[in-house]
Amino acid sequence: MAGADSVLRVRDLKVHFPVHDGVLIRRQTGSVKAVDGVSFEVGRSETLGLVGESGCGKSTTGLAILRMTPLTEGRIEFEGQDISHLSVRRMRPLRKRLQMVYQDPYGSLNPRMKVGDLIGEPLVIHGVAGDQDAYRARIQELLRLVGLRPEMAERYPHEFSGGQRQRISIARAVALNPTLVLCDEPVSALDVSIQAQVINLFQELQERLGLSYLFIAHDLAVVRHVSHRIAVMYLGRIVEVAPRDLLYRAPLHPYTRGLLAAAPLPDPSAERSRAHEEIVGEPPSVVNPPSGCHFHPRCPMAMPVCAQRAPELTAAATGHAVACHLHDPSRALDIAASGLAA
Amino acid sequence: MQRPVLEVRNLAVEFGAGAGRVRAVDDVSFEVNPGETLAIVGESGSGKSVTALSLLRLVPTPPGRFCSGEILFEGEDLLKASDAAIRCIRGNRIAMIFQEPMSSLNPALTVGLQIAEPLQLHGRLPWARAFDKARELLTRVRIPDAARRVNTHPHQFSGGMRQRAMIAMALACKPNLIIADEPTTALDVTVQAQILSLLKDLTKETNAALILITHDLGVVARYADRVCVMYAGRVVESGSAQDIYANPRHPYTLGLMASIPRLDQDAVDRLTPIEGQPPDLAALPKGCAFEPRCRYAMDRCRDERPTLEHEGGRHYRACFANVAC
Q1: Is the Cβ pair A262, B271 closer than 8 Å?
Q2: pLDDT for B237-274, tens place per residue?
Q3: Chain B interface includes A246 (CB < 8 A)
Q4: Do the beta carbons of residue B113 and residue B72 sit within 8 Å?
Q5: String of b and e for B219-231 (b: at least 16 CB within 10 Å)?
Q6: How do residues A258-298 score in pLDDT, each as one tens digit?
Q7: Given the DSSP bridges, would you call strands A212-217 and A180-184 parallel, antiparallel or unpaired?
Q8: Which chain A residue has its CA at the smallest distance from B44's CA?
Q9: Inter-chain touch A262–B193, beta carbons under 8 Å
Q10: Which domains are seen in chain B, by residue range?
């Protein structure tokens, strides 16, 4: 899926925010490593799910790719072009093909603009609106594309429900025929009965327009449904990447396993027969993350090495990579030895 | 059979007046037994939170108005009780846990003081004793280093720890009923699992009844004994959790079950959503509120509002259609 035909390639991305101290003489006393060495690819017409708990850096990763937050280190390639150091002006034409859908359909639409103008705004900004007739026709086409009625162009956002507003946001995002759409928690503000409608719309648009998605979310069931591959993040790092069904059937990283066990299933019989292994504690602060593997203080399988050295993301099977000392082939002997000693 | 802790009968709550009048809760009836966990599920605007607030008369009147019904707590009608009597019940015999632990804790007071307050107020304990109890309670909700934590302020607590402190506060006076309104919606999934199993364990220990207000069908399946499904201010189906999930009999419940993606199953090609938009409470149809979105709708559904009817066992539903599942 990924490989030569990747739309987005992120290599060793780091986004660190400086922490200052002092009143008159401000000194940098440390940094928040919001994203700390993240690498992944998104293939053409592929959906990569990026999951993790709050503060794991998934949204910051998205913002860095859009160049909406300065990146500290690393390389971002979009359609084969290195965009990690492009100026605002040089970045602008690329934005046509790199779009975004936000979480909150109430906060992300200007309440004073009519829906038609909201959807047409990207066309005007990028100078592809054409004459009045072409512009109107395109807006109506987009409204139909996202399952709204053409006459809704004359209404204001407050007249729409959350699900309909998210459709408007999606119409805005696809107005310029993008190749990649970053979706940051696009259905988590919606009611359950509406979520499914919007998820289906995302999938239909992917098939019709050949879109690639970077789908950032915390809901593991939603991510399983929409993604082709999934990357799990914990405290600024990717701990596991795998094709979706493999990740859910055979998760390798203790954090992924704990995350899956913590999410309740909508099935009382299945819940009763399921072992509820809890991950202890809460995600630590990114200002002062634990040494070595960030997950080791909460990990039920932690070994002495986990506190000393951060594990690398290494391939465990085709398409399946994990950053865990338990699955490091070069350490297999040590683990066996410690097992014998115990 | 044991007597229910709480019986709600035909409760109706309205807001506003004239054309903007909205009936947020309409003809809602349910009961909870000691030691039982009842989940009230619904989407935004379904009336589940207003129902929860009504139980302790926390709905501001005006603009709110209790139109009819009874809320019988251990036999006493809370809607008829005096303000002084209600104050003796709040935080004492009925405790409430809210969604946002940070906005329901006072940022200027130490956590210990806030847990000790109901003990001093309702339990008439001297402050020193109340503080000792607060420390014990923090240990019981598994906050490490409770002796030191008891003197710290809420901002020094993480989200999960704040919700643990809220649970400690709720348990302080050994209530017979705990109402938790979306207690883990603001928390991460690993912390959610910890908090809910803690709440479940502690209520089991004290044989308190728990009303869990949530929109999460997974949480309901894991923690609830019984379920009330609400839509547009009314209970449309109720029954044991096992029954509701294995054998949903209302088209709305059926639609909800079909529309959620599953964590434990390989992805299907497309989800089956409930079509249409959520109802506008200010302009509800004359008949069944779900009729415009219902696959089983008949002529009768447009003119007549179905009431909750017995379906066998403890299963009830409000629907005219013959729903095959």
Answers
A1: no
A2: 999 999 999 999 999 999 999 999 988 888 778 899 99
A3: no
A4: no
A5: bbbbbbbbbbbbb
A6: 999 999 999 998 888 887 777 888 888 888 889 999 999 99
A7: parallel
A8: A191
A9: yes
A10: 6-89+219-317 (3.40.50.300)
